[in-house]
Amino acid sequence: MAALQALFGGTFDPIHYGHLNTVEALARQVGLHQVTLLPNNVPPHRPQPEASAAQRVAMVELAIANRPLFNLDTRELMRQTPSWTVETLEQLRLERGETQPLAFIIGQDSLLSLHKWHRWQELLDLCHLLVCQRPGYERTMPTPELQNWLTQHHTQQASALHQQPCGLIWLADTPLLPVSATDIRQRYRHNLSCDDLLPAPVIDYINHQGLYRP
Ligand code: ATP
After folding, report:
1. Index of the ligand 1 atom closest to the CA of residue 106
2. Structural domain containing residue 166
3. Which segments of the chain have a pLDDT < 50?
4. 35 lines ligand 1 (CB under 6 A)
5. Residue nearest atom 27 of ligand 1, based on CA coordinates
6. pLDDT given at position 1
7. Which residues, at least 6 apart from 10, have a Cβ–Cβ distance to it below 8 Å?
8. Does residue 10's CB lie within 6 angstroms of at least one atom of ligand 1?
9. Ligand 1 pocket test: which of 59, 132, 179, 186 has the largest number of ligand atoms within 8 Å of its C-beta?
10. pTM of this prediction?
């Protein structure tokens, strides 16, 4: 069977160590050799990213230049309209075949609100979910029904993720990194240092482009 392939979607406005270091730790735990970053378009009714799509891509490219685990797929940004994760996963499933083990990586905050995602119940028909812990977020689901759903799909066997094409949830024991893009943008607005929060080349780019300034 082909190696487990993993995808990690996000706004990446900007990409930071909460994304990079957490997913590297997850990759070591689960045995991932490649993680594809999928920067997304944001639907018009939601607050828009401050950085343009091209700037978000540039920051991702700088961040992963010396991190061989990661590569980049800009398909969601190429489309005029925001794409739903489930549709991107359908496309990837078609491209990679029925038997290819595929995983989508999310943070705990995203797991807790997954039931608000478009066609969320179909996600596990297309991929596994690998969930990274995030400080400040509950470990139990908001309703007993959702907790049941989680329990039904939860696995503690990393090998199962490599053997099945989809359908399982892995709750990773990743380090708790208290970093968010919102916090970084606020720190920039208040001229506070972000040195420990994101890679130096990304910081240089933000400064050079004058991003996130008041
Ligand atoms: P914002 O603060 O603008 O909402 P963010 O920091 O949450 O941004 P996103 O690009 O929206 O970053 O996140 C992409 C994915 O990364 C989401 O699934 C999110 O849960 C996860 N993630 C972001 N930061 C962390 C972190 N510090 N630890 C674990 N997961 C994280």
Report:
1. 18
2. 5-176
3. none
4. no
5. 18
6. 60
7. 19, 37, 38, 39, 40
8. yes
9. 132
10. 0.97
